[in-house]
Amino acid sequence: MRRVSFACAVLAWFTLLAVADVPLACAAGKRALVIGVNDYVNLPNSLSLQKAVADADTIAEVLAKLSYSVTKVHGPGHAEFLSELDSFANTIETGDTVVFFFAGHGISLKGSNLLVPGDIPEIALANETLIRGLTVAEADIINLFQRRDAGLIVMVLDACRDNPIEEAARVRAEQEGRPFRDLGRGKTGGISPRPVSGVFSIYSAGLGQRALDRLGPEDRSPNSVFTRVFASRLGDADTHLAELMEEVRAEVAEVAAHYIDPETGRPFRQYPAYYNETQGGRFYLGSAPRSSPATGVFKSYASVKGGTVFDGGNLDHSPYMTALTETILRGENTLRDGAAELRGKVIDLTDGLQVPETIDSSVGSFRFSGGTDGDSRKRLALLVGGSAYQYLPELPKVASDLDHLFGILKDELGFEVF
Question: CB neighbours (10 Å) of residue 233?
């Protein structure tokens, strides 16, 4: 993928038609079940975690401040896990917002995400039937909540740290001098992101990645890398959950990169994943923001200062223009929502090598897709670009990018374009 060493910029000045930001309706009931497991009493001590219980405490405290009725459980065994889950489900009323948070070990076994209780026996390590019977399936938790007619379900699994099943089985096999039998969980066996209809699912690391419990022995934070970032953002009342997760994703990746992976000698890669299968609007864990007319200046840059901008190689348009037209300019995104999604999309398209930057001094909520009926203010756009320079590299896709943007702004969004 060809790249150039200086950034392009798209700047928008607007005092345009404001479109109300419609939040996803929240029921009066807000309930949360928060579970943390540090100690796995039947597994090697090396597989115990240091911060899972503290993670649960931190999330429980934040959710309580957001007016959730919180049930908190530390280190449950299998029977206690199921009992607490059943008791919690019985409190759910029709339309309630339900948050489930789990910090501990988890595995993905042939497409099923399984949460590991603290008393899983060592005998289960190489037996698929026992593993399934002595863990708690993510799908079963969701089904239980859905049977109680929960309005919205948010699943947060900080459970990809390591695979205790695979690692302990390997250690045991080495001790007994026998081959290690892989049950087909894949390379890492950690929690696998799987979208579920009607549920907002959050995973502390991407598919095939581990999640850091800590940044080495000198890390003084009481929380895991994911939870320390996630908890700090949960109270943002003016940030809907999808936008919040884009910000969490970028910050976790940045924090994790400070840790050098001893296996590879390179900065650690951890990118939280989320799947939004909710319907009906935008969802805020706290209170939804009040909408107001949009005024001020909103700037979007293709890359941070000093960063690299890629032209997209064989793509029809540059990664930035591709993301811009699919996020900020299309759908029901507000500028802020779209900018967060744009950042994540460009990072994905460039494997993390190009990171857009937003400078936002605007006030209120604005959507490019908002209509202009009954409003006298004009929607104007000025497009300027250059592709051939005497002393700088040629930018072959600028012209096609501008033509593409021109067509969307004029023909689809009703702007007067210059």
Answer: 17
Between the CA of residue 388 and those of 11, 350, 396, what are the distances in Å?
21, 24, 8
**72/102 Cα distance (integer angstroms):** 10
Distances (CA, A) of 304 to 7, 33, 317: 8, 39, 20
End-to-end CA distance of the chain: 31
Buried b or exposed e, range 244-265, using 16+ CB within 10 angstroms: bbbbbbbbbbebbeebeeeeee
Q: Which two tokens stand for residue 337?
A: 């929502």
DSSP string, 208-242: T----S-SSTT---SS-HHHHHHHHHTT-TTS-HH
Interval 370-414: pLDDT, tens: 543 344 557 778 877 766 766 667 777 777 777 887 777 787 777
Read off the pLDDT band of 47 (50, 70, 90): confident
The CA distance from 368 to 17, in Å, is: 9
The helix (run of H) or strand (run of E) holding residue 119 is none
Q: Are strands 357-360 and 297-301 parallel, antiparallel or unpaired?
A: antiparallel
DSSP 226: H
CA angle 67, 212, 142 (to 5 degrees): 45
Helices (H), 260-334: 319-326
Residue 282: burial class (beta carbons within 10 Å; 0-12, 13-18, 19+): buried
